[in-house]
Write a structure and sequence with these properties.
single chain; Rossmann fold; five-stranded mixed beta barrel; 32% helix; globular; binds hypoxanthine
Length: 231
C-alpha cells in the first residue's frame, strides 16, 4: 500500500505499462489482457493486473506530466515493479512523422527543472534501458510496425506561450514532444529498474494536423502490442 496506489506488492506484476490516461489503462486491460483484476481506483488513476499470453502484466494510468508520472513510477518501484513501459502520445517535430506513426524514445531531453533539483546546473541525459529498447525494435519488426527511434522532448507545458518554441529542438533532431519520459527514465536509472517509452504520434507541430477521435482510438493498438511483447 502506498499513498496513491491501494495495492500490495503481490498485486503488481514485474512489468507495468504506463498510459497517461487511466481509461486507456482500462482499455488495454479490457481488450488485451485476461484474468484481469483492478488493484487501484484512488483518484480515479486506474491500475489493473492481468495476463498476456500466459505472462503477468500490470497497466497503471499516470496522468499527464512529470510530477504525477514520477509519483506513480516511484510507488510502483516501491511495490516491486522492475520494468516500466510508458505507452503514450506525442506531437511530432519532424516533417517525416505522420499521425499514427510509432516512436521509441532512446533518450528524453527536457525543458523541466526536475533534473536540476538533482544535478544542479549539470545536464543529465535520461536514456531508455537499452536491452528493452532493442527488444521493442525487434518486436515491432516482428509485428510489421515501422518505428522511429531517437530523442524526444519531455516538456512541462502543453500550451507553450511562444508559438515557435519547438523549432530549436526540431533543428537538433528531436522527434517529438510529450510530457513524462525524462522523469521516468531518470527515476528508473536511480532505482536500477528498466524503463522505455513507446509513443504514437497524435498531432504534428509541423503540419498542424491532429488525430481524430477515431484515429486516436485505433492508433493505440500497435504501440500496446509492442509493449506487451516485452512482458
Ligand atoms: N505536446 C505535448 N505533449 C503532447 C503533445 C504535444 O503536442 N501531443 C501529445 N502529447
Amino acid at each position: 500500500m502506498t499513498i496513491h496506489i491501494a495495492a500490495q506488492p503481490e498485486d503488481i506484476a514485474e512489468t507495468v505499462l504506463l498510459p497517461g490516461d487511466p481509461l486507456r489503462a482500462k482499455g488495454i486491460a479490457d481488450k488485451l489482457l485476461t484474468e484481469v483484476t483492478c488493484y487501484n481506483e484512488v483518484r480515479g488513476m486506474l491500475g489493473y493486473t492481468g495476463t498476456y499470453r500466459g505472462k503477468r502484466v500490470s497497466v497503471q494510468g499516470t496522468g499527464m506530466g512529470m510530477p504525477t508520472t514520477a509519483i506513480y513510477a516511484h510507488e510502483l518501484i516501491a511495490l516491486g515493479a522492475k520494468r516500466l513501459i510508458r505507452v503514450g502520445t506525442c506531437g511530432a517535430y519532424q516533417p517525416h512523422l505522420n499521425i499514427g506513426d510509432v516512436i521509441i524514445a532512446m533518450t528524453a531531453s527536457t525543458d523541466s527543472a526536475i533534473n536540476q533539483h538533482i544535478f544542479g546546473q549539470k545536464d543529465y541525459a535520461p536514456a531508455a534501458h537499452f536491452p528493452l529498447l532493442l527488444k521493442a525494435v525487434e518486436a515491432a519488426k516482428a509485428l510489421g510496425v515501422a518505428v522511429t527511434v531517437g530523442n524526444i522532448l519531455s516538456s512541462d507545458s502543453f500550451y507553450n506561450a511562444h508559438s515557435e518554441h519547438w523549432h530549436k529542438w526540431a533543428e537538433y533532431g528531436v522527434l517529438g514532444v510529450e510530457m513524462e519520459s525524462s522523469a521516468l527514465y531518470t527515476l528508473a536509472a536511480k532505482h536500477q529498474v528498466e524503463a522505455l517509452t513507446i509513443l504514437t504520434v497524435s498531432d504534428s507541430l509541423v503540419t498542424g494536423k491532429v488525430a481524430s477521435a477515431e484515429e486516436r482510438q485505433h492508433s493505440f493498438d500497435p504501440m500496446a502490442k509492442i509493449a506487451l511483447a516485452l512482458v
